[in-house]
From TrEMBL:
Assembly behavior: Forms a complex with TatC.
Functional summary from the UniProt entry: Part of the twin-arginine translocation (Tat) system that transports large folded proteins containing a characteristic twin-arginine motif in their signal peptide across membranes. TatA could form the protein-conducting channel of the Tat system.
Keyword terms: Cell membrane, Membrane, Protein transport, Translocation, Transmembrane, Transmembrane helix, Transport
HAMAP family in the cross-refs: TatA_E
Cell location: Cell membrane
Region ranges (Disordered): 43-87
Family: Belongs to the TatA/E family.
Any GO molecular function: protein transmembrane transporter activity
Membrane topology value: Single-pass membrane protein
Protein name, entry field: Sec-independent protein translocase protein TatA
Organism of derivation: Natronogracilivirga saccharolytica
């Protein structure tokens, strides 16, 4: 059992022509093309969303970053301990 030969393809094309008619075939092909385009677009959008989601920091990473920012803010507000107050 191999792939279809030349005669098999010819019979398939003739059957399709008889079933759908010459006017209907371009419409069917156009619809099929539009469907494939929409499928590829949706697939691409899903892939981009997944990649975007994997690049976003996790909740734990966001919490750690926030904590680091708070600690650095506290250090900036505290006066240096080795400075002597002027009298």
């Amino acid at each position: 059992m191999g792939s279809f030969g030349g005669i098999e393809w010819l019979v398939i094309i003739l059957v399709v022509l008889l079933l759908f008619g010459a006017k209907k075939i371009p419409e069917l092909a156009r619809g099929l093309g539009q469907g494939l385009t929409e499928f590829r677009k949706a697939s691409s959008d899903i892939r981009k969303e997944i990649e975007k989601g994997s690049q976003e920091p996790t909740a734990q990473e966001r919490a750690e970053k926030k904590q680091e920012q708070q600690e650095s803010t506290k250090k900036e507000k505290q006066p240096a301990s080795d400075e002597k107050p002027e009298s």
